[in-house]
Write a structure and sequence with these properties.
The structure is a single chain. A seven-stranded mixed sheet has the order 2-8-7-6-5-3-4, sandwiched between helices. A three-stranded antiparallel sheet has the order 9-12-11, with helices on one face. α5 packs parallel to α12 and α14 packs across α15. The model has no long low-confidence stretch (mean pLDDT 94). The protein is built from 15 helices and twelve strands. By secondary structure, the protein is an alpha/beta fold. It has two domains: 112 residues, Aspartate Aminotransferase, domain 1 (Alpha-Beta Complex), CATH 3.90.1150; 223 residues, Type I PLP-dependent aspartate aminotransferase-like (Major domain) (Aspartate Aminotransferase, domain 2). The protein binds 4'-deoxy-4'-aminopyridoxal-5'-phosphate. 4'-deoxy-4'-aminopyridoxal-5'-phosphate (PMP) binds next to α6.
């Protein structure tokens, strides 16, 4: 073949993305400190991504260091040791556990594993931003049900939205970004009303931060309703966001399907070992979580005293509903103060609860804004 023949390819031909992909919103990452800010020693408070502000648990860091010496090897693809440890922790069997690269990775497998093109997935809105992206990517239809006036799930409206195409319902408790949990009684009534061939995913990414009894006993519901799937993560309270490991608890045939659709070796040995060590360090984790809960209460009380209206949050974050005008002013004020928060167009801002000094900076910015508004 001559070079002329190679150049003869039609100019207009080029690879194209599927419409479902080109129509997706681009993920907007939480703002991070720029290298200029870092080198200028600017003290940036990263409160936009609900990460733990604590360094990894010492036992997890030690497990990673130890596993790092075996990086030339693939990890255990079936994650047997980790699945058994999770199963022991929750009182289920390893056959009912599937792990993945973060709970968002597991959720992608759930939707891809259950939905054909045109099937429907119902979720509350606003909720976790990845939900519509994962649903649309799978070629399924996202059915968003507005939150109720108290910033919680409108379960009655969600039940009414079920059609014969509904395959999955996503419930987020406590809800990201509003922090409002779903009570056990309401969730059980919902499960009674929903067809048993619909998978009801209870996303509990922030469950460790919730006060006992504020949300559902999801394991009890799972035992009573085999169409329940519990989704949890090591990214938040356990402080392993950067290692990517989360899991689902589901009926053995669903869990087996998730394991079959997993990207091979997506959960590294470092992540598996760190997750095991973190479960073993439950007491230390609980001390950290309870410090965040105390800070959450302190901040909520101070903000209410300043005049802000808040719904009680059970996550490691606070939610301030704000129209776009107020939202813009708040984001600018936080930005100027070197504090990164998450802004949601048309809805409000979410602020991660962190160490007392960062939280005080947040309180100060919000107090200034109230004083300005009253002036
Ligand atoms: N679910 C909810 C509600 C979340 O807020 C997040 C993270 N922001 C996740 C799942 C995913 O977390 P990860 O993939 O790190 O486990």
């Amino acid at each position: 073949m001559t070079s002329d023949q190679i150049l003869a390819a039609p100019e207009s031909a080029h690879p194209t993305l599927r419409a479902a992909v080109s129509g997706l919103p681009s993920y907007v990452p939480g703002r991070r400190a720029s290298s200029a800010e870092r080198s200028a020693g600017v003290d940036i408070a990263a409160l936009a991504s609900n990460e733990s502000h604590y360094e990894p648990l010492p036992a997890a860091a030690a497990a990673v260091a130890e596993a790092a010496g075996r990086m030339n090897r693939y990890p255990d693809m079936a994650a047997v040791e980790l699945r058994e440890r999770i199963a022991g922790h929750l009182g289920v069997t390893a056959a009912e556990v599937a792990v993945g690269p973060g709970s968002v990775g597991v959720l992608q497998q759930i939707i891809a594993g259950l939905c054909d093109a045109g099937d429907e997935v119902i979720f509350a809105w606003r909720s976790f931003e990845a939900y519509p992206i994962l649903v649309e990517l799978a070629g399924a239809r996202a059915v968003r049900i507005p939150l109720d006036a108290a910033e919680g799930h409108d379960l009655e409206a969600m039940a009414e939205a079920v059609t014969e195409r509904t395959k999955v319902i996503l419930l987020c408790t406590p809800n990201n970004p509003t922090g409002v949990p779903i009570s056990h009684g309401r969730l059980e009534a919902f499960l009674r009303s929903v067809r048993s061939d619909i998978l009801v995913v209870i996303d509990e990414a922030y469950v460790e931060y919730a006060e006992a009894g504020s949300g559902p006993d999801s394991l009890a519901l799972y035992r009573g309703y085999p169409n329940v799937c519990i989704l949890r993560t090591f990214s938040k309270a356990y402080g392993l966001a950067g290692l990517r490991v989360g899991y689902a608890v589901a009926a053995p045939e669903i869990a087996e399907g998730l394991r079959r659709t997993a990207i091979p070796f997506a959960v590294t040995a470092l992540a598996q070992q760190a997750a095991i060590a973190s479960l073993d360090a439950a007491e230390e984790m609980e001390l950290r979580v309870s410090a965040v809960r105390d800070e959450r209460s302190r901040m909520a009380a101070r903000l209410e005293a300043q005049g802000w209206t808040l719904q009680p949050s059970q996550g490691n974050f606070l939610w301030i509903r704000a129209d776009d005008g107020l939202r813009g002013r708040l984001v600018a004020a936080f930005d100027q103060a070197g504090i990164m928060v998450r802004a949601y167009q048309g809805d409000g801002i979410r602020i991660t609860v962190a160490d007392p000094a960062s939280n005080d900076r947040v309180l100060q910015v919000l107090e200034t804004k109230v004083l300005e508004a009253r002036a």
